[in-house]
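Example 3.2
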Amino acid sequence: MIETAEGLSAVDQIAAVDGVDGLYVGPSDLAFAVGSQPGPEGPRTTEAIALVLDTARRHRRIPAIHAGDGVTARQRRDQGFTFVTASLDVGATRRAFVADLAQGRSAE
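Structure, written as tokens:
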């Protein structure tokens, strides 16, 4: 999992380790590590994520990343990531609660 400045600076060495199958990006923590913020992706975060993606490809490792929702997951897949987690526990729970509440309030 690449989500710290140390991990990013050693990403090539990490990818070269025999037995490592993939490189997984935690984009929010990585954003903080490169001096940016999560949310709308800043240039430093974009560059860091691209470095991990390129390194994974170069070492023939699985490029993986976390995405907070389905739209972002699709964007990451289009970017070239082949393993994408597509939800946050808090977000998924909230969506389920909102759906249940709407059903409970509906007049049938």
